[in-house]
Every structure is written in structure tokens, then in C-alpha cells.
Amino acid sequence: MCFKSQSEKGFDPDSQWLSVQAQPCGRFGRVASGLPPIDQASYRRKQGAKNIRSVDRGCVFRFNCRVVANRSIMSHKGGSHNRRPRRNIPTLPALNFLSMTQAYLIIGAAGGIGSELTRRLVAGGNRVLLCGRSETTLATLAAQTGQPMAVFDASDWTATAAAVQRCVDEFGQLDGAVNLAGSLILKPAHLTSFEDWQQTVSQNLTTAFGLVRSAAPTMRKSGGGSLVLLSSGAASIGLVNHEAISAVKAGIEGLVRSAAATYAAAGVRVNAIAPGLTQTPLTERVWSNERSAEASRSMHPLGRLGTPADIASAIHWLLAPEQSWVTAQTIAVDGGLSTLKLGR
Known about the structure:
Helices cover 37% and strands 13% of the residues. The chain contains 10 helices and 10 strands. Helix 3 (112-123) packs across helix 10, helix 5 (157-171) packs parallel to helix 6 and helix 6 runs parallel beside helix 7 (243-263). It has 2 domains: 2-70, no CATH class; 98-333, NAD(P)-binding Rossmann-like Domain (Rossmann fold, 3-Layer(aba) Sandwich). The chain has helices spanning 26-32, 40-47, 112-123, 135-145, 157-171, 194-221, 243-263, 284-287, 290-299, 308-319; strands at 2-3, 21-24, 59-62, 103-107, 127-132, 149-151, 176-179, 225-230, 268-275, 330-333. Strand 4, helix 3 (112-123) and strand 5 form a beta-alpha-beta unit. The strands form 2 sheets. A 7-stranded parallel beta sheet has the order 6-5-4-7-8-9-10, sandwiched between helices. Strands 1-3-2 form a 3-stranded mixed beta sheet. By secondary structure, it is α/β, with parallel strands linked by helices.
């Protein structure tokens, strides 16, 4: 493969950019494409010794790269196919783009899972906009982590859109967003009031939809990102008295698949985590009772309840740019609740 600059007069060492094109060249590439062979000796005289090029069979590719310190790192001598670095020019260090600081928005940041996730992200050098309804708990977390906060009800789509824009204004970017807002109602359908139902839909499905609606287009404009929503193991299996929460969480899983399809071409990934019973303040009335906690533990094949760290670590994994090939997935982090049945 032979690399050459765009100018036929030779590579200018003061130039900061090279252009991007590809054209057939060389004894094999040109003949295969119906073009006459190039006179290599004449070509070298025209190009001069300062060109960036590496000779091989096939095609010449013009490429885009930053020339560091106005010097190239590749050259060739004569018509040889051997590549060698120029003398006295140090090898450039590899850039680790995955270590660059990311900017995230978390709705429900002050909850059990949200606070654990926030600390993990901040410990990695990332920036986080802490969002939620409780100013007191948000202020405490903001003081501990040194991150900004925004107090609003995420069921208000206008307020959610404003928070997304603030993240862009304050951090210059939005690489990921998480919706951890939610509620828990354990009632059979005939005892669930219309107000109960509306609140369940508002706090779970409406907040999730509002975040996708605002964050996905913002990420699309900047080249991609990761959205993570929260489902539940109850959406996959039938659990007694979970009609309302099962319905809205199943809706979130449908939202994940459809939104992932819509924004995939723009590099925006949409996924969900489906926890089992996790020991957070929201579920405390379930696991604080020992009899109820024991019954719940027996439903999980791994024999224990989840912790905020269990769920936060999975969300953290999905947010990372390394998972750029994971989208449209609902990942169960539930101790086997939704997929295993053990005889005990």
C-alpha cells in the first residue's frame, strides 16, 4: 500500500493536515482497474523524499491525519516494499480515547442506585449532572461529589429537556443519560385506583419516555451516546400483586427496543437493566420485614437480595464507550429470578 500526499509537488512539512481520498495505483492495482501502470521512477522524482508513503501492492490511499510537530513518521526508499520509520523521529504514543472524560445525566441520582452510580462515575474522572425531586438529598450528594444538581420532576418533559440542555451548556457534551426515577406499588388490579395507576405510569414510563425524547436527539447531533433505563424482573414473569408495575416496566422494555432502532444509525445506544428485589430506600418496606425479606430471598435462585452496587455496576458497564456494540438489550440483574426455577 502506497501513501502519498494530495499535492503532486511533494509533502509540505509545515502543513497540518493531509486530505482523504483513494485511487488505484501501483503495478497491480492500476492494471486490475484498467489503468496503465505508473512509472515508479518518474513518480518518485515528482513526489520527492518528503512524502508520507508506504509502498505495497494494490492501491494508493490518501488519508486524514494530524501531523505532529510538522513531521511525518513513515517514508520509503526507492521502490522497496519495506517500511521503516525515519531516523531520529520518535514513535508517537497510542492515544487512549476511551479514557477521555465523559459527561452524564442521572435522573434519580440521590437514590440508592443513583448515588452508587454517581460515585463510580465521578471516581472515574467523569462529570455528572445530578437530577431528582428531593433538593435535600441531592444537595448532600452534590456536596460529597462536587457535581452540579438540578431539582425537578422528571415527569415534566419540559423540565427534563432543560436539564439535558444544561448538561450540554455546562459540560459541553452529553455522552450518557440514565433514568432511575420510579415507584413501587404492590396491589392486585381490583384494588389499584385510577390515581395509583396514573402515578405508576407517570413516575416510571413517562419519565423514561421524556428522557429518551430529549437526550437521544442531543446525542445524535454529537455523534452518539448511551441511554440506560430501568425495567424490572416483574416485567418478564408473573408475580402476585405486580400488575401495575409489570405493565409499565414492560412498556419501558418496548420503548428500549423501538428507540434503539430509531437512533442506532446515529450511534445512540438504548438499553435497560431489569433488577430483582434490590435493597434501596424505595423497597425498604419490603425487605425491612424479616418474614417478607426471607420470602423474597427464596424467590431468587442465588439466595440473596440485590444491592445498589449490583445494579450500579451493570449500568456503569452499559454507559461505558467500550460497549459501543451493545444496544436494544434488557439485561436481567436479578439473581436468576426471571430465568431460573430451582426445586427447593
